[in-house]
Amino acid sequence: MRRSGLLVFAAVILILGLLTVPLLVKPARGPKTVVVVVLDTVGFSGVFSKPEQAPFLAQLAGDSAQFTNAFSTAPWTKPSIASVLTASLPASHGVQHPRSRLSGEAETMAEYFSKHDFATAGFVSHTFIGPKTDYRRGFQVYEQARFGGHVHDAITSAEVTTRGLEWLKKLRGPEGAANRDAFLFLHYFDPHYNYKHHPAFSQTDWYKGSLSDSMQYREFRERSSTLSDDDLRYIRGLYGEEIRFTDRQLEKLYRGLAEAGATKDLVLVVTGDHGEAFREHKHMGHGYLLYNELVHVPLLLHAPGRIAPQAVPYPVSTLEIFPTIVDLLAMPQLGSRLDGASFLPLVEGEEAGWGDRMPLFEVEYHTRKVGVVHWPWKVIFDQDSSVWEVYNIETDQAEAKELEASTRDVPAVVEAKERITRYISQESVVAPKATLPPIEYSDKEIEKLKTLGYMM
Ligand SMILES: [Zn+2]
Fold this sequence. Notes:
Number of domains: 2
CATH topology of the largest domain: Alkaline Phosphatase, subunit A
Helix content: 25-40%
Shape: globular
Bound molecules: zinc ion
Low-confidence stretches: 12-27
Structural class: alpha/beta
Number of helices: 15
Radius of gyration: 24 Å
Largest sheet: 8 strands, mixed
CATH class of the largest domain: Alpha Beta
Strand order of the largest sheet: 5-4-6-1-7-11-2-12
CATH architecture of the largest domain: 3-Layer(aba) Sandwich
């Protein structure tokens, strides 16, 4: 009796096992499509301050892992985007100045995906990361959208979307390879000054003052201490129109991805390279300071069927996007030395150790500052004046109130300071290798970059 009972038990287990097998088999997927979108000059509050500012991104956030405390590595374009592409901090990838080149030691996302047989393409909107620069390494197709005749006076986001989708549809079309994995990098520049008025998304019709959207940003900046509240609201309104317009282009991008069948096995990352200041700390524009309006950026990880929608409050760095995608796709580990790790465990419920995370950001170009977030603290060190600032960004997101000296002895703050001290004393920071000749720009490009506010 006992033996026959065991046989019945074994048979039941076998049948249950056979019934369960189909459930364990992963659903059929299409070829992999990895899309990384960097929105230039779009900080977290610029997008998510109110849902109507970027309705598509607000909707996408609801269907993604949304990181509510993501930090860029720098408050301006070149170093920040280099970090996204190489998973390394500015001291490692070597880009700290408009003329710096990307270190050859840092493997780029495009090089990695090319090596693993992905088709790769990038469509960008700025000379700084254009086809003449090392940012094109590893891309089989790399183009720069029309940048405008003089300053940033052309609308480029629509073109970036169009070109990206054309490339993908051709790749997966009748003349392409339908099953080819694809990596697409898109850089949207419209929210960067100069701000253009978008009548379809107007937020500035009420304004009766002396400013206009045909003015160059440096005029706004030069007049910044005398701007009235209405003037400032008007400038913010123009910036808001640019974000609203860019959001519409992202909506079109997503619709196009769906039409191309690319959403079957999609990893879409949307982030910002830095934010924009509107006199929050008596400053306008970006490139100088490390406050949250400049380094706190949006970060969405959208991978239907792989990533459950959720808000992730833990601090992460945009340089960790690259190892996270590799982790998510279970691809071979990255070869080059990394300054960050995959944040996928935070999304999958393995939150242990999150308290040790310390995203770092820095600027060396106009001034020399290094900052670290060690939740809930943010520590900024001005290396030129040797002044430390400490904020509690959980209770004071705007960094309005610097903390008393006594608070600075709490262990997490001390650890953040030690992290900064270690960073600025490492050889690559103290004596960066200048092995690569600086980038040469044409006179026309230099004039254009100066007009945008860069010191060349
Ligand atoms: Zn930028």
